[in-house]
Design a protein that fits this description.
The chain has an eight-stranded antiparallel β-barrel with strand order 1-2-3-4-5-6-7-8. The chain has one domain (about 1-199): Porin (Beta Barrel), CATH 2.40.160.20. The chain has three helices and eight strands, in the order H-H-E-E-E-E-E-H-E-E-E. The chain has helices at about 1-30, 35, 140; strands spanning about 45-55, 65-80, 80-95, 105-120, 125-135, 145-160, 165-175, 185-199. A hairpin with a 5-residue loop joins strand 4 and strand 5. Helices cover about 20% and strands about 55% of the residues.
């Protein structure tokens, strides 16, 4: 129940933020839908961002929230609409005092993913990625595997800041397979806010 309330609050906050940003930009520029689309370039985009996450399922039994960062490159396939993405990042899940694993160590993840980013309308995107997550402190957390398969569906909004500069805000569910032979999956909900620029 508490997780549902947290997820709802995060989703509502992000929706409010994105709606306000879009309204503010349209008011400031006085642009219409047709002229707004011209503010989005169709070239390669790079982004550097901060990530925050809350664990779901059994992962929340041993770890609190997480913080980290990521870099991403978007390569256009269909101008302004479909991009191939490559993403690498780092997330640190903070250990709970009552961690049943009794390791006393944080969970340090290094996800590397690739996928597709699709813009059904100007600014709004749906993204899906898959790849591998590497566990950088395998022995400290008592894991038997140093890597796991990862998949991450995401929805977000790209807000133009002027020129080829953007604010990229997205929410994703990220699922990882087991790090231990008899363990469970490691899933979490994450927010990414990034500065993006075209090259």
């Amino acid at each position: 129940m508490k997780t549902s309330i947290k997820l709802s609050a995060i989703a509502l906050s992000i929706f409010t933020l994105l709606t306000t940003a879009v309204k503010a930009q349209n008011t400031a520029t006085g642009s219409t839908a047709s002229s707004t689309s011209t503010t989005y370039d169709s070239g390669i985009r790079l982004s550097v961002g901060a990530d925050a996450a809350i664990p779901l399922g059994s992962l929340k039994n041993n770890y609190n929230w997480a913080i980290g960062g990521s870099v991403q490159a978007d390569f256009p396939i269909v101008q302004k609409q479909l991009f191939v993405t490559v993403n690498a990042g780092y997330l640190n899940f903070f250990n709970k005092n009552n961690n049943t694993l009794n390791t006393g160590s944080d969970l340090e993840l290094l996800p590397v993913k690739a996928g597709l980013k699709y813009f059904p309308i100007t600014g709004l995107y749906i993204q899906g990625e898959a790849g591998a997550t590497f566990l950088t402190n395998k022995s400290e957390v008592g894991a038997t595997k140093s890597a796991a398969f990862v998949y991450a569906p995401q929805v977000g909004y790209l807000i133009p800041l002027g020129g080829k500069n953007y604010l990229d805000a997205g929410v994703r569910f990220e699922g990882n397979t087991k790090f231990t032979d008899n363990g469970t999956t490691n899933n979490f909900l994450a927010l990414r806010v990034a500065y993006a620029f075209g090259i």
